[in-house]
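Changelog note: in this version the structure field was regenerated for every chain. One regenerated record is shown below for reference.
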Amino acid sequence: MKFRPCIDLHHGQVKQIVGSTLSDSASDTPSTNFSTERPASDYAQMYQRDELTGGHVIMLGPGNTEAAQAALQAYPNGLQVGGGINDTNAQEWLDYGASHVIVTSFVFREGTIDLERLQNLVNVVGGKHRLVLDLSCRKKTEDGPYYVVTDRWQNFTDYPVTAETLQFLSRYCDEFLVHGVEVEGKQCGILEDLVVLLGDSSPIAVTYAGGARSLEDMELVKKLGKGKVDLTIGSALDCFGGKLCYDSVVAWHKQENS
């Protein structure tokens, strides 16, 4: 199991946002846990220094291109990039230095998955080894399955996250990235049932993000995910204004992967 770092960008700044409060409306302001003038490239250089691979840069809406490019160029081939990726710009982002492009909304549309778009994107980037599918998800009912959500997590699809769909989609990508949207940015603990599902059912590398706040949560993800589910922590880290020591998380990761 690995710790996967993140750089979330909103209006060109590194921020940590409560995921469920994101909106397309210009008049709505998302709930923000952390915002800094520190450039994204500084975080990228820190992750490179600490030999952390497979982290992601997520562009939350417009105005983030320059900051994302700077982060990728600061740590070439060390970070993935997502947010507004499609078949016309995916190769450009790889050329900027991304190891992979991350995609959701372009291939999930009108409530389901567009396999023609997905296959075309695989072809554009030269194969599934450069593509990460973001299966960020929410439940429609308390006892029901998780469903993929799109467009800054505002819109439900009818596409469930199950053992069968994970198996099927693994043919088209190198990894999955899964945000537990209901707890994203809230530092309230992980979605245990989702981590169990990913650990039991994902045939390829998978990263879970959402709610983690402590080294104990890292151990819990390791246990529930059977060591196969990587973890992203954002708002809880002291480098993003939280209480969890970033250096301690890096030390935990290095001990696990020594």
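Spot check on this record: The helical segments are 40-49, 65-74, 90-96, 115-124, 163-169, 192-201, 215-224, 246-256. The mean pLDDT is 93.
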